[in-house]
Specification:
This protein is an alpha+beta fold and about 190 residues long. The protein has a domain of about 100 residues: OmpA-like domain (60s Ribosomal Protein L30, Chain: A, 2-Layer Sandwich). Helices cover about 35% and strands about 10% of the residues. The chain has 4 helices and 4 strands; from the N terminus they run H-E-H-E-H-E-H-E. The chain has a 4-stranded mixed sheet with strand order 1-4-2-3. Helix 2 packs across helix 3. The longest helix has 26 residues. The chain is elongated.
């Protein structure tokens, strides 16, 4: 292989340019003049005796007993967000999340997104009408609908578990629309 004169010339120019760049950087660094008369003080931490006195360096005494630990207002594990409803209600034979419950779900999503270690169980429930299998399936669809809504708001799938109790755990005993409407729900239970 023959190397052309032009290629050799380009390599030499590139090397010279690199050397010039390094020289300029070094020249710029060496032009900074340090001020040797600037005061220097030792700011290292000194031990304080039991009586609150400082060492011989003359720094101010610090009384470690006066330090108050910071109390965070984070709810404990298993505790839901404060002042937020934990129940989402549904219409008869429906698993569509009503628009009026979206602000509640948004508050729960913010709470779960702020701490990715928190877990919530979405418990789907139905009223007493209908067969056992049908109500278990409907309760699961309701729990899954709430799970999808929270997922769209950024909550990770690993933080949520959707389960169905069907008609097995009514919130209100009795027959009639008032009792039935209170039993068609998804409850958010933090663990």
């Amino acid at each position: 292989m023959k190397t052309s004169v032009r290629t050799l010339w380009q390599r030499q120019v590139a090397r010279a340019g690199a050397a010039l760049l390094v020289a300029c950087v070094l020249a710029g660094c060496s032009s900074v003049k340090l001020d040797d008369s600037a005061p220097v003080s030792d700011r290292s931490i000194t031990a304080v005796g039991a009586g609150g006195t400082a060492d011989a360096a003359g720094s101010a005494p610090v009384d470690n007993r006066a330090v108050v630990p910071v109390q965070t207002q984070q709810p404990e594990v298993g505790q839901p967000p404060a002042n937020v409803a934990r129940t989402i209600y549904f219409d008869f034979d429906s698993f569509t999340v009503k628009p009026e419950f979206m602000p509640t779900l948004e508050a729960h999503a913010r709470f779960l997104n702020a701490d990715r270690q928190r877990r919530v169980v979405l418990e789907g429930h139905t009223d007493e009408r209908g067969g056992r299998e049908y109500n278990l399936a409907l309760g699961q669809k309701r729990a899954d609908a709430v799970r999808r809504a929270l997922s769209l708001m950024g909550v990770q799938d690993g933080q949520m578990e959707a389960v169905s109790f069907g008609k097995e755990k009514p919130a209100v005993q009795g027959s009639g629309e008032e009792a039935w409407s209170r039993n068609r729900r998804v409850e958010l239970v933090y663990r």
